Every structure is written in C-alpha cells, then in structure tokens.
Amino acid sequence: MQRYQTNVRNDTLYIETDGDRLEIGSLDDICELVGGETYSIEYGQRQRAMDWVDTDDDGEFTFDVREVLRDMSYDEEFVTNVRPVAIDETDENGYPLRTSVFADLMMRIWDSKGNLEG
C-alpha cells in the first residue's frame, strides 16, 4: 500500500505525493484547529489494559501535535479526500479550507484511535 510522507517547511505542512507536494497549511493553524499544541485521547478501562497503551491515571494519552504530524504518513484514500479541497478558500473562521478539513480528519482519526470504520 502506497504511503505519502509529511514534509514541513517554514512551519507549513505538506504531504509528499507522486511528483508534487500537497500544501496542507501552517502548523500554527492546525494546532489552533485541533485545540492546542497537545491532543488527548481517552481510553476506556479495557483499552488501558493493553501493554502498548500508556495513559495517565484518568485514562488519557496526551501527545505533541507538531511532533506526531511531522512523523505521520498518509494513505492514498486520505490524500484523495484532502487534495480537492481548496487551499485558497477559507472556512467560516478564516482558516484555509484544506487546513480546516485536514484538522477535522486528524481529530476524527485520533479520536477513533485510528479506526474510522468503527
């Protein structure tokens, strides 16, 4: 399965695709859209029992948004969903539309713990 890597230049996040870079938007904007520099995912009691889940006492796993985004890669379906969204149009809050859609998708992925099907 083809994976597309993240590239950050001058605080702007891009996804490296076949032959070009897809501009997503500034990391500052993405952090604002997801609620801050860190993001927390809450795990239930049963999920916390897994060895690979490292949560705090309240069952929350908190991570650095910028760090996680720099290390992410994306499948073709993700890129196909983001590519047609205009980067030069803005949402109701003044953020680039593609940046806003990207942030929303990332929160959905994180909140579902990577399982968008369920």
From TrEMBL:
<protein>
    <submittedName>
        <fullName>Uncharacterized protein</fullName>
    </submittedName>
</protein>
